Please model this.
Amino acid sequence: MPRTLTAEEHATRVRVLQDARKADEEHRRRAAIVEADRRRQEEERAAEEAPPPDDEGGEAAADESGLKDGTYRGSEAKNPYGTIRVSIKVTGGKIVAADATYPITNDSAIINPPAIAQLKQATLTAQSAEVDAVSGATFTSASYVKSLQAALDQAGG
Model:
């Protein structure tokens, strides 16, 4: 017949399980931060290695969109969790690439990478700063749109 645990033994086992859960959650959080940092570094490296456009700053003629070919960096847009800065590349009067720098510490490591990816895709689809906010990333979305609009203004949009 199994022995009955005392209240103290039971409490000790519960604490051990809770501590193990906390350690697992912390490990997952840190792994997400490391992965987000790795992705950001890869994106930055790819952006640095990309050949510059023929016309940096937009001297080429714009098509109906009004956007001049070139690469443009929006202003830094701050929010309570950090700063976001969007860069766009315009070719043939269309936004062909959008990138952003963003915070990746604490909860931002989990929230920002997928939110920024969604906002970048929405930018390419909308060809404007009229993109929907990402649910759960309101500050990130607002900062992204503000910086994107500044980049578009430089491009003549």
Notes: Residues 7-49 form the longest helix (43 residues). The chain is about 50% helix and 15% strand. The longest strand covers residues 82-91.
